[in-house]
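> call design_seq(struct)
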């Protein structure tokens, strides 16, 4: 069996635990659609969505912290609805406050998962950085396989 067929055979016959790091980016639908197409062939899958609300957003506000907090909570609830729409009601949705890179590192150490999925919207020419700083951080620090979804099309710069 060639490598691709062997990999697909493994995926179809193995229960898999997937964590998807997701924020409220305009590309969230592309990440969810890609994840949906990836998990569609799996025999058994447990999906956890990890959404970190960036607490650094509160550092520059003066007097609007309550409204900002309410808006971010509302956005998180809408994001959860979108995740359910794409991936079904059996997902586990975790939303917490923190500095995203640090909080994700902290949470992933405590989680049991087989694959981590994230998106990147930074893409540069040959010889320059190929992924954004968040995706690069995940690639360097994850103890499990990572699927990075490029979010820009070939026509975008």
């Amino acid at each position: 069996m060639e490598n691709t067929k062997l990999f697909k055979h493994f995926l179809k016959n193995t229960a898999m635990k997937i964590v998807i790091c997701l924020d409220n980016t305009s590309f969230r639908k592309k990440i969810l659609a890609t994840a949906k197409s990836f998990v569609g062939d799996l025999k058994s899958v447990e999906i956890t969505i990890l959404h970190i609300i960036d607490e650094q957003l509160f550092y520059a506000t003066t007097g609007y912290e309550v409204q900002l907090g309410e808006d971010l909570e509302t956005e998180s609830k809408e994001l959860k609805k979108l995740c359910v729409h794409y991936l079904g009601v059996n997902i586990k949705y975790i939303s917490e406050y923190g500095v995203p890179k640090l909080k994700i590192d902290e949470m992933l150490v405590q989680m049991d998962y087989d694959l981590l999925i994230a998106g990147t919207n930074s893409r540069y020419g040959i010889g320059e950085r190929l992924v954004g700083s968040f995706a690069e951080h995940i690639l360097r620090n994850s103890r499990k396989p990572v699927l990075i979804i490029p979010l820009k099309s070939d026509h975008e710069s």
